[in-house]
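[User] I wish I could look at a protein chain and see how it folds. I have put the entry right below:
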Amino acid sequence: MRYTIFVFVVLIATAFRTADQNSFPTLKLALLKYSGGGDWYNDVNSLKNLAKFCNENLHTNFDATDYATVEPGSAEIFNYPFVYATGHGNMLFSDLEARNLRAYLEGGGFLLLNDDFGLDPFVRPAMKKVFPELEFVELPFSHPIYHQKYSFGNGLPKIHEHDGKPPQGFGLLYQGRLVCYYDFETDLGDGWDDVHNDPKELRTKALQMGANIVQYVFGY
């Protein structure tokens, strides 16, 4: 476990550019490929656009031309401190996948869950298998994740209407650390993408909130 945390510290340290660094990207964001039939592959440009926005506004050094695709039971997931999961439908983890994902999160990794409308009934039992002892808790608007480079005094911005309910941000806290953040009733990922004709103002808010999450996770 200590070795895993050390690896994540090294990876996080390389994610930000310094004045004398060359222009080659040092890290990719990762998309979670899960089982169950849900469309994990949705929003194909979301992570690339988020990486580009973070590079331009946070001075990160992410690869903005591509992202990694990782499975919850793979060893490769430990190469990526930041993993994103999205979709509308079913999400299932095998016992092995749940154990591996838990080890990843315990060891310093971070999972961002994006409700692309309809994910909620599936994502909660899936994550309960990973952390049976934990419950999703709604983060208060005062939480630092809403007050990084960009300030969101009322919490998550509302990007898509979905059921017309207010957006909510939930978290899983393991030993006091936020290991998983879940955006519900807003769909940040669609706001990052460029195929749904979201107004520029909403896309900007979605990207700013995404950058906040990245900045919070990477401790920059």
The chain has a mean pLDDT of 90. The two ends are 23 Å apart (CA to CA).
